[in-house]
Amino acid sequence: MDTTMGSPASLINATTSASIRQDDLSDLSQRIDINNISRPPIGSSPHSRSDAQPRQNCSPYPSDRFQTLNKIRDALDDGEVGAVPPSPVVSFGTQQEIRPNLFRALSRDDHMAQSLSSSFSGLTEPTEASSRSALSSQATTPSGMDTGKIQHAPQARQKSVAKAYCRSYEILNFVVQPKSSIPSDVPTHQYATECLEAAESSRLNPYALHPEEYHLLRHHISHAQVTTYLNIRNSILRLWLQNPRLCVTRKIAIGCANSRWFDAASVCYDWLVRGGYINYGCVQLQDKPAVESSPANGGRRRTVVVVGAGISGLSCARQLQGLFAQYADRFTEMGESVPKVVIVEGRSRVGGRVYSREFKTKLNGRNPDFKDKRRTAEMGGMIITGFERGNPINILVRGQLGLQYHALTPETTIYDSSGKPVNPTRDVLVENLYNDCLDRVSEYKYKMQPLKSILGNRDLLDEGRDSPRDGSKTIMEAEEATAALPHSLPVSEQSVPEKVNLVPVSADKLTGRVHNQPGIPASAKVAEKVAAMGWTLRSQPEPDFELKLEDAVASGDATLGSVMDHAVARYKDLIDLNAQDCRLFNWHIANLEYSNAASLHRLSLSLWDIDAGNEWEGSHTMVVGGYQGVARGLLQCPTPLDLITKFAVKTIRYHSSSSDGPASIESEDGTVVTADNVVCTVPLGVLKQGDIKFDPALPQWKTGAIERLGFGVLNKVVLVYKEIFWDSNRHIFGVLRNPPNKNSTRQEDYSLNRGRFFQWFNVTNTTGLPCLIGLMAGEAGFDTERSTNESLVEEATQVLRSVFGRKVPYPVESVITRWGSDRFARGSYSSAAPEMLPEDYDLMAQPIGNLSFAGEHTTGTHPATVHGAYLSGLRAASEVLEGILGPIEVPTPLILPKDSVLLHKRKETAKNPIQARREAYELEIADHIRDTIGERPLRPNKVTATGYLLFSKQNFENARKKCEAGRKNGKPRTTPNDVRVMTSKMWKEATPEERQPYEEDALAQRAAYNKAMVVFNEESRVWDEKAVRLRARYEAEHGGSVGGHERERERGEGIWGWEEREGGSKLRRGKQVSYAGTA
Fold it and tell me: Which domain of life is it from (predicted)?
């Protein structure tokens, strides 16, 4: 609705429903054809165009390819339509159209994928640290919850130990050419680099087992075999990233291994599929089975109900549908049909807190790029914080849905409350002081315990080569043997890297998130550090001036806000901070409150930055036309999900003691949906409010975590104008806000106002209309819930006029969010409340019987984010599948013995029958000896340790990070050789005292090796003597096994055999079969 200048325009509450026309759904009959469309590499970074226009070439598909989903208005806005109507299957094209010449011959009839060459951007190795975050909201604090006693979750449903089963050595279940999925036309070094980067782009360390992989494989592979396994795993990930619109099949994955490792590759494939590392999102499944609408032959058909159609709910439902289809044969074996997945949603739209509201204002003729497109603004989730280093949103937005996006630039102009730009030099001074304050406060951060890290051979992995050795002890056996030695670490503490302190160094102006780097907090004296920044110290500070943060921490109710306030007061004793300095300092605090959706006084001092170290890389971006396009894509592609809207849940009944029991979901109008499994993805604010009843009631360990975690409020004021009056080349600008007493320098006076319209986003390029979004963070976010639309628009207009002049008009349209008052949200996102415990995010994720949980509040590594919500849905889907099918089954032995494979090959080829029988006989003897006295003792690994090698190994990660820190934009990814050069330099620069421990350790290792060799020689001698006696006894008892004249020839010729050749016989060396294995 247009209005004249001088009065507020239409004021719309974002939670108010708007009607939807039925004809908006009319174009659903169109098919989406995205075949044979070129796209940029998934790992490439977006770059902002100089004209600040939306990037037309960012999308892998033409802009009209997604027009059909743009018509699904019921999946976008609150409205009259209750459910998404049936629509035809969205076609991603045939297998041949998407991957031309993809399949090569497997054997005679099977096919194997040829992996295509790829291009990845430079990525850094993921950190091992796992993290979390939390907070408390007045608007969403539940009543009646007992906080006095903390009860911990039982050891229920941790990742199950894999089942083991035996299979005959003589049967290979997969007719696949060994390593047929590895391209022959790609240089080995390039292929190895692509595999490593594929792992990094999948949130996995390419050089180490994931903790779940460790628990899955520790009984089955040795340390030496880890390298080969990682090569297989990374190769499968590379295949997936080549074309994430098409799933990787088991046969294609197994083609990354040689024949001995087929079973291991199959297990790895199961782990990657179940864990949501491959074949997730809007992916077209190959050989998809027909899903019957009713159970076959009277068999059972399970139902899984997902409560909530936000990003986590849609992620879980889409993943479940894909998993059930990929494991359809397992359900057939169980006599069941593929389970049904149903989503129930209280709203009449999908997306939850990702809500792209369409404007009523059209302004015809403006911005032709948006012709026939929706013009929306983000009410909730808005920014994609980088596509690189494993963000799953990368696969969805760029690899599958082809959504257009626009890269944001962080350059910011900050205007004082008077409207004048702040002096850049002064701004840098205050920002450095703020960062130093966070650095010193981080000394009290909770230090996460590093996870066990079983590493492969980095050099071999860099070169794409498998380990030449197998080893004789499994990881478990080696760890237990080490733990049995005197003064050794227990198994749980072996292979655990040292804790790495992450200290804040800067802040992201686009998101308010803190950037961290490894280091030691508060390493420099306060006065020296402040003076080095450029501040002028007061006359003569104390010789050992300190901030004395321990005084503030000692108080029983210390929070991040209270300790920061204390620090600012102490800084004032050291330097002169005027009123503008205080406004600037509090602008940065408001930015931090924006990232946490809460005031600093509601943040835990030790856990406020618990997710540090898990950030993505690459430019921040926004989706053109609305982030909600991701939710719509998950709902519709490749086939529509079963969705029931306007289903406000009243009660969830579940089976608390078993993953297989009856469950039901009852709505407020009395409708009941029965289920076998339930996944609850409702926001933490709704759980805190107690709007949904659980039967039986949730246990104390779960309700305690719900209560202790925080859930804050961030609100927005969205303003649409006829013309742009701001700097169109900047995406953000800041405004300093005065305290009630504008000349005050008291820190506590700034908390109420600092977050009011402190930052503005220019979203013209993604909305298609001249549009600004003002943020209301911290206490201002809660105050928005109580303020009128008119007063907020008037205040926003006055703020803008103070910067851009009195001619700034009132907006032609405005939208104001009130997420705290939204009954289906009760807030914006989770945060670390002062009472939070380090394990609370894990407790929130823990399932109870057949009730699972998902949502951004259930992921400790990525809380309060859209990608975190998505990842939680993948995790919940994996839990549901495991509850139905059980854990991954691991064959025993997992890697076939070499002699077994040789025997299998001998049976497949025509050979001299005498030689074949002799070798089979030797194998029988070898098996008998092993069964009687075990394997031959393993020779100790040769020690080549020097002081430098030990120093290099321990400091490799630090050297790599130094190389990365010095890597300029555009420079290729740091290579292992670069890191070796850096470690050599560090060794040369080390003092004799620093070198001495490594040199002493090297001497000790060599002495231990010599001692171990003495023991090995004696044990081997005893074993060999026993083996000779056992062989003689076996031959005496089974002498007829080889045959009369053959045995006589064997005695006469020893180890020589005859090979029949045309024109006579030729004496040749027979292959000796060793029962000593690979020792």
Answer: Eukaryota
How would residue 145 be classed by pLDDT, with cut points 50, 70 and 90? very low
Nearest in space to 253 (alpha carbons), one of 465, 245, 261, 164: 261
Angle at which helices 956-965 and 976-989 cross, to 10°: 110
Q: Is 408 helix (H, G, I), strand (E, B) or coil?
A: coil
CA dist., res. 262 & res. 228, Å (int) = 12
Give the Cα separation of 44 and 398 in Å (integer). 10
Residues with Cβ within 8 Å of residue 105, at least 6 apart in sequence: 111, 112, 177
CA 757 to each of CA 143, 594, 795: distance values in angstroms, whole numbers, following the listed order: 32, 11, 9
Quick one: which H or E segment has residue 452? none
What does pLDDT average to over the chain?
79
Give the separation between CA 311 and CA 203, rounded to whole angstroms.
Answer: 19
Tell me the three state secondary structure of residue 25: helix
Q: Where in the chain is CATH 3.50.50.60?
A: 302-350+631-709+837-885
The whole-angstrom separation of Cα 710 and Cα 684 is 9
**Hey, what are 928's tokens?**
């008998």
Helix (H, G, I), strand (E, B) or coil at 849: coil
Two structure tokens written together for 88: 């035809």
26-78 pLDDT, tens per residue? Answer: 332 333 333 333 334 444 433 333 333 333 334 333 334 344 444 433 333 44
As a whole number of angstroms, the distance between CA 882 and CA 160 comes to 8
* Residue in this structure with the two tokens 């963070």, named with its chain if needed: 777
Count, in order, helices (H) and strands (E) of the chain.
32, 30
Segment 472-493 shows an average pLDDT of 87
Strands 10-13 and 813-816, by their bridges, are parallel
Cβ pair 845, 858 in contact under 8 A: yes
Main-chain phi, psi angles of 800, to 5 degrees = -65, -35
Does 696 sit behind a cis peptide bond, omega within 30 degrees of 0 on the bond before it?
yes
Whether the CB-CB separation of 545 and 564 falls below 8 Å is answered with no
Q: 791-795, 819-823, 1063-1067: which has the minimum mean pLDDT?
A: 1063-1067
Architecture of domain 302-350+631-709+837-885: 3-Layer(bba) Sandwich (3.50)
The number of angstroms, rounded, from the C-alpha of 600 to the middle of its chain's C-alpha atoms is 27
How far apart (Å, rounded) are the C-alpha atoms in residues 508 and 530?
Answer: 22
DSSP result, 768-812: SS-EEEEEE-THHHHHHHHS-HHHHHHHHHHHHHHHH-TTPPPPS
What is the identity of the amino acid at 439? Answer: D
Count of CA atoms in the C-beta half-sphere (13 A) of 209: 27
User: Has residue 373 got a pLDDT over 80?
Assistant: no
